[in-house]
User: Fold ABC-2 type transport system ATP-binding protein from Kineothrix alysoides.
Amino acid sequence: MKTAIEVKKLCKSYSNIKAAQNIDISICFGEVFGLLGANGAGKSTTVECILGTKKQDSGTVSILGMNPQQERKRLFEKVGVQFQEANYQDKIRVAELCKVTASLYRNAADYIGLLEQFGLSDKLKSPVSELSGGQKQRLFIVLSLIPNPEIVFLDELTTGLDARARRDVWRSLLDLKQKGLTILLTSHFMDEVEVLCDKIMILKKGEAIFYGTIQDAVAASPYEKLEEAYLWYTDEEEKEYESI
Ligand SMILES: Nc1ncnc2c1ncn2[C@@H]1O[C@H](COP(=O)(O)OP(=O)(O)OP(=O)(O)O)[C@@H](O)[C@H]1O
Assistant:
C-alpha cells in the first residue's frame, strides 16, 4: 500500500516543554489513523507540524509526497481540515458559507449532498451563528470535506454531538473511507476509535507510548477493552505516585 503521510523523528518543543518527541507515523491511503492522548499530550502540535502550520524543530514530514512547509498551496487543494471554530462573517448562512468555501477549490464537492449526509439539509438558510453546538460541529466536518480531499484531518470530531448524531457521523465517515478517503483524527472517545480507526498512536507528554492496531493495543495491556487499556497506557503517572 502507498503511503499518504510519512512522519519521521518529528520533534517540537516550546521553551522547556517537549510537545512532540521523535514521532514516527506512517499512514497508508484509505487508512483511518487515530492520534490519542490526554489533554496536553501533544496531539495538536503533532497535527500542526504535519499540516505545516507549525514548524518542527527537527524531523521530516511528507504528506501526499509533498513537504507541507514548501508546498502549502498545492497541499490544501487535496487536504481537508476540520476546525473547532471557523472564521466566518457574523450573519452568514449555512449554504452561503459552504458556497464561499467551495469557491476556493478547483474540484469542490457537492456541498448540498454533504449537508444532507451530515443531517443539515434543513439548515441551509439558517445563520451559522444560530446553529446548536452539535450542528456547528457537523458543519465544520462538511466544510473540511468540501475540497474533495484525499486526506482529511478531524479534530475531536464528535465532541458535543448527541448519541444519534455521533453514530450518524461515524456511518458517513466509514462510507467515505470505503470510497478511499484517508483520515487522521484525534479523539478522546474509545468507542469512536474502535469503530473508525485502523491504527492508533497514544501520546503521553509528547512521546508515543503505543503505535499499532487496536487489537495490539489491547493485547499488550492487562485489559480486554480498549477504554481500559487506554487508561492503563495514559495513567501510569498516577500509579507511580500511588506507589511512592
Ligand atoms: N504555543 C504554545 N506555547 C507554549 N506551549 C504550548 C503551545 N502550544 C502547546 N503548548 C504546550 O505543549 C504541550 C502539548 O500541547 P498540545 O496542544 O499539542 O496538546 P493536545 O494533546 O493537543 O491537547 P488537547 O487534548 O488539550 O487539545 C502542552 O503542554 C501545551 O501546554
